[in-house]
Amino acid sequence: QVQLVESGGGLVQAGGSLRLSCAASGSIYRINAMRWYRQAPGKQREWVATMPSAGNTVYATSVKGRFTISRDTAKTTVFLQMNSLRSEDTAVYYCNSDIEATPYMNRNYWGQGTQVTVSS
Questions:
Q1: pLDDT of 14-45, one tens digit each?
Q2: To the nearest 10°, the Cα dihedral for 7, 10, 16, 20?
Q3: What is the pLDDT of residue 36?
Q4: Cα 106 from Cα 33, distance rounded (Å)
C-alpha cells in the first residue's frame, strides 16, 4: 500500500513563508515525478509545480519565482518552499506522484491535502 502524506500547512500572514512536505511510504520500487497541486474554495484543482525524476523543475506562472519544489536525497519526500505568500495562495495543497510499486507498474497517487491560509 503506497501512501503520500502532506504536512506543513497552516495560517500565515501575507508576505510570509511556509514549507510543505510530502512523504511517500509503503511498498515502493521507484518514485518518478512528484508534483504539487492546490485547490482554492470554489475553484478547480490546479497544478503548481513538478519535480521530475530527472530533468528540470517546472512551475505554474502564478508561483514562479516565489515557490521552490525540491526533493530529499532519498527521493521519497518532496518539499514546497513557499515565499512571499499572497491571499490568493490560500488553498488546500495536494501532493501527487507517479510511483511504481513493482517494476514498470506506474500508478498515480494523491495525498490527503494540507490547508494553507494566507491572511491579508
A1: 999 999 999 999 999 999 999 999 999 999 99
A2: 10
A3: 98
A4: 11
pLDDT over 90 at 8, yes or no: yes
User: For residues 34 and 98, what is the distance between their CA atoms, to the nearest angstrom?
Assistant: 7
Cell 495562495 belongs to 89
Angle CA(115)–CA(57)–CA(80) in degrees, nearest 5? Answer: 25
Residue that has been written with the C-alpha cell 518514485 in this structure: 31
Antiparallel, parallel or unpaired: β 18-25 and 77-82: antiparallel
Q: Which of 97, 110, 88, 7 is nearest to 43 (CA)?
A: 88
Q: Report the 10 Å Cβ neighbour count for 48.
A: 24
Distances, alpha carbon 60 to alpha carbons 46, 63, 69, 94, in Å = 9, 6, 11, 15
Residue 73 in this model has a pLDDT that exceeds 90: no
